[in-house]
Amino acid sequence: MTFAAADRPKLRQIGGRPINDGGHNGLLLRDPLNLCEHSVVLPHALTPVLGMLDGSHTVEQLPARLQSRFNLTVGSAQLQQLLAALDDAKLLENDNSARAQAQAVADFHHLPHRALSSADGSYPAEPEALREMFDAYLAEAATAAGTADYRALFSPHIDYGRGHSAYAALWQAGAGAAQQAELVILIGTDHSLGEPELTLTRQSYATPYGVLPTELDLVAELSDTLGAARVFAHELHHRGEHSLELVANWLHHMRGGRPVALLPVLVGSLGTYVRGGADISSNHAFEGFIAQCQAVMRSRRTLVVISGDLSHVGPAFEGAALRAAGKDKLRKSDAAIIAAASSGRPDRFLSSVAAISDRTNICGVAPLYLGLRLLGDSQGHSMAYQHCPADDTDTSVVSVCGITFA
User: Where in the chain is CATH 3.40.830.10?
Assistant: First the structure.
């Protein structure tokens, strides 16, 4: 495709990571929606071009703007080649990517259930193998099987290999609640969305044990209240997001493979509230969601399952190397966050994260806040706090824990 001089190319919301594998050296652009099998490796020298693809500059203006702002010389032919590659990979916000996304959503809806996106990589897809693995983790857990009194569980969503101690302790304690639930509201981090949006799906989640049917009547009611365009705008994120999948497996396991009605919810970042000082009460989607779900919770035995990890610190997350003293400091910082969450007061929890400007990159802020709001008065009990290594030198960590709420 050749772009006209008057076109104003705009990059979609994508990610990227450095790559140097001999044949390729640059920035590997990553599409969280995987709309295309093609990938683009952008030479490091050309990365400033990405920041200019915001829809405000015409193709004709771009070379001069790049020259004046970055002292970067990009010829018309080179720019056309780059834009064509981005367009071919569906990375630009235009009709081409819109058609691809619409087709991907239609394909997703036509599936009998959401496919296991992390199976065979993060865990075995064969039910007996997964059962043996989970049972081995549970046998190592120090906690006893809990009663059905818990109203909510805060579970990690890190890979099982690193976080199995926290998973097992939490789900052992929450066994009774999981087994007796009639409805599970499962809220997880949307790692692909930097906005505080709620995303629903009509598709059901599967595990190696079978299918957990999505509660379609509740989805329809929420869609009517909050607006279908809003709650389904990012539905395709459900297709590849691991935060609900890894927790749903544990839920289904603790139920002995018995299905339960599920409301799967992804929620974006609350960065505008914990770092920008915005008033969260102005988020009418959250308020509507909470009111509608609380009405359902009063009539059905409902378990709220909150999927989130804690801090992400170190070079793997663009921070300084974490040594012994830094890890001790992180434990104290996390302890304050966990105590605030365990108080059952969502305002106190959010204030505790805002107090440190979320500098430890806590990815479970949004689902935990939303879960606390759903519960109203509650009291949490934390367990199995641990640091999971996030690089080969053990200078980056992800912290996790489990919390039960009564």
Answer: 114-405
Q: How far is the C-alpha of 321 from the C-alpha of 344, rounded, in Å?
A: 33
Name the DSSP letter for residue 18. Answer: E
| CATH number attached to the domain at 114-405 | 3.40.830.10
**C-beta separation of 230 from 307 below 8 A:** no
Judged by DSSP in three states, 315 sits in helix
37 CA to centre of own chain: 22
Quick one: tokens of 143? 């906690």
Q: State the Cα–Cα distance between residues 194 and 304, nearest whole angstrom.
A: 23
pLDDT in tens, 73-117: 999 999 999 999 999 999 999 999 999 999 999 999 999 999 999
How many CB atoms within 10 Å of residue 396? 22
Closest by CA to 303, choosing from 129, 179, 130, 124, is: 179
State the amino acid at position 57 in one-letter form: H
Collapse the DSSP code of 120 into the 3-class scheme (helix H, G, I; strand E, B; otherwise coil) and give the result: coil
